[in-house]
Description:
Molybdenum Cofactor Biosythetic Enzyme, Chain A, 6-stranded mixed sheet, magnesium, MoaB/Mog_dom, molybdopterin adenylyltransferase activity
Amino acid sequence: MPDSVSVRLLSESITISYQQVVLYDRYRVFFPLFPCYYWLFACEMFSVITVSDTCSNGTATDSSGPHLVSLVKSKLNSTADINYVVIPDEIEIIKQSLIYAADVLRASAVFTTGGTGFAPRDVTPEATKAVINKEAPQLALAMTLKSLEKTKFAVLSRAICGIRNRTLIVNFPGSKKAVEECFLSIVELIPHMLQLLNDDIPKVREIHKKVQSEGGQQHVHVCPHATGKGGDDRNSPFPLIDVDEALQIILESIVSKSDPKKQFSRANIPPFRASIKDGYALKSVGGKGVKRVVGYVAAGSGLIGDNFNIDECYKINTGAPVPEQADAVIQIEDTKLISADNDIERIVEILTDPSPNLDIRSIGSDLRMAEEVFEYHFPVDAAQKSLLASIGEPLKVDKLKVVIISTGDELVHPYEASNQATSIEGKIYDSNTTMLVQLLRQFGFNEEQCEMQQLVVKDEYESLRKEIKAFTGVAHAIISTGGVSMGDKDFVKPVLQDLGYDLKFGRVNVKPGKPFTFANKGKTLFFGLPGNPVSAFVTFHLFALPALRKYLASINEAPCTLAKCVLPKISIELLTENYELDPRPEFARATVVSKNNKLYARITGKQVSSRLKSIVEADVLLHMPARSSSKTTMVKGEFLTASVLRADFISAYE
């Protein structure tokens, strides 16, 4: 909260102290003292106030306030200024901030977030009640009823809504998710409320007339994504969202640590001075010349502490412990054998002058005790596991529990002798389950780090509901294929809603994979992949894989950056002569060819979503832009972004 507010009128400027604002509230004398400046505060604006001790003192980052600012701008189509501040849970500061926003800034509406619960320092409602002239209890009730559709804990919000002079004041909860739910539940009414507060009679009459003419229905939603060729019941009620937005929603649903999880060494590596070469361990002060071989030290031998003369040496192998009295190793290539007895070397000549510590790895030279070994990345890979083994540390991972469900009456298990799909009319082998299991294993989700269950469920509402309910709250993730489109037996979305899942989105503007669906409930994430194999393949890589990587890291208390979650991306030149663009952004499967150290992509034939062969030869997913009036075709020689599907992603060198 500033001590004062500076305002400018033509060439004059004045500073209004905060005490004068309080004085105005108490004695109603502030603006009479400055009548020439009253008009200055009539400009439309909004104010957003985050009430949080931790955000105000810098120990936490405010996400709800900025999100609320974004909602105000986008949903109210506001070009007005938005004043955004963060303050602590202090009742006097909250009251003063509300008065400042309403009486000095003359905000049309003030939206607070935080401090509406039952905790001792949750005093936003009390502060609000103290400064408003009128309450608006039905506004708070509307928000509560909407939130109760999502969670029973909505009854714990004590939000107050009301009016101070001509300023609307609304309390929202503190969480980002709840802020959005509550704001969206009243946003359509806010413009009309502001018109009423400002006595905008013509606009008020216009709204009232419209409501009466439409039988009380002010706004009827028409799906903007309908084709126009079918009835209202023939088009999906789910808006089409962009790929990046879909991925952001998914990843934001997984809370992860910001601090890296580190592994520290519990031993020195090497734990003794070790020879770097096969050769002879000796004392450097003895210089070169003829030496008598007094012993042999192999890798794994015990440490030799005996003293020896400067004209003596030990034959030694790579990795063997260097005798305590030796300070150099001469490689065998710099020596000459003088005599041997029954293949046992007796006398050798050292041909080069040794120097102290020559070809000796000192204790802890690779890794010292208590030194950081690495920051964990999940799934834990071969390099991390080998380092753990080198310090004698077992792999300790909390496993991710994943359930894979294929839906469809037409599906039979491919490896059971009794299921001969080719001999049963209307049946096909279930390939999606096999594909998803193998992809998870391929990306490091092995038995040590991931428990998997798989099943095929018939296209029956109750059967699907029973299976999803059984794994909800048990599995970290359910990956389902099929049942997410607009067919008579596509039950996934209604089942999720029936079971109380928060259905985040039901369609994505992408080819293939438009019906991809994401929802969550408690600890369980639900990925609804389309049933066509290629659509399932693409949406798994775009959405499910990044989420599972982050979730595995999260349950093991480690962060996972976006770069580590998603597939690696490269820039690549198109080798295919031409490719017709689709109205949706497309992820085309392509083979990578290397020519003179440059990478080229050749599209793998027909790209229909049911053609599994297109993914067998695929090394990358090409990011094709959506078709536009100015760009209808991609042609040979143009550069595209490509997501790399596997480590050995170059199929040919030409």
